[in-house]
């Protein structure tokens, strides 16, 4: 999983590319650390390249959303693959994380 | 086909790849996605939690049933007796603040597979997952 973050003040444009699974979930969490520590972050994540996520990835998205709420920021996921979207739907994540 | 893996510590990726490369696997991408995810969650569960010291074996295999219409995946270990299906499902209606981190793996298997069964037999945990291929 490749994570690119472009920051402009409070605005974070994030591009995800690849799979999030058991082999790289820890690295993914580490890559998102700057977003978890930010005050009032406005995060837009482009998920076009995210082809897969296991529950390991989901728990990181939930951690991020919890942190964003605690820091009074916002998080939007965009262009999600329909197969990945189904995983977010099944687990109720679509109702707690904004998906465009 | 089935294979005995020993040791299994840090071997999730190899075990998942073995199962996904089985000739019993369908070609359809959407089906493969669901099967791959369920296999990953079930295998990870055993690799991470079945053996207290992390050292132990797993037998993993696939089979076709109903004249090729149903894929069956079996995962067997001799670790601590544990029924993953007995765990309470996560509350998927809770708010982000209320939601607990974790507990989603086996829940996903339940939702993505057509049938999932746990047995403890002859000192082994046996998890069987079935998916209709048509």
Question: Which H/E pattern describes the elements of chain A?
Answer: EEHHEHEHE
The greatest inter-chain interface is formed by:
A-B, 22 and 26 residues
Number of domains of chain A: 1
Q: CATH topology of chain A, which one?
A: Transcription Regulator spoIIAA
Strand order of the largest sheet of chain A: 1-2-3-4-5
In total, the number of strands of chain A is 5
Beta-strand level of the residues of chain B, as a percent range? 25-35%
| Uncertain runs of chain A | none
Sheet having the most strands of chain A: 5 strands, mixed
- What is the H level of CATH, i.e. the homologous superfamily of chain B? Histidine kinase-like ATPase, C-terminal domain
The number of helical segments of chain A is 4
Could you please describe the fold and organization of this structure?
The complex is a heterodimer of chains A (about 100) and B (about 130). By secondary structure, chain A is of the alpha/beta class. Helix content of chain A is about 35%, strand content about 35%. Chain A has one domain: STAS domain (Transcription Regulator spoIIAA), CATH 3.30.750. In chain A, strands 1-2-3-4-5 form a five-stranded mixed beta sheet. Helix content of chain B is about 30%, strand content about 25%. Chain B starts with a strand and ends with a strand. The mean pLDDT of chain B is about 95. At the A-B interface, helix 3 and helix 4 of A face helix 2 and helix 3 of B.
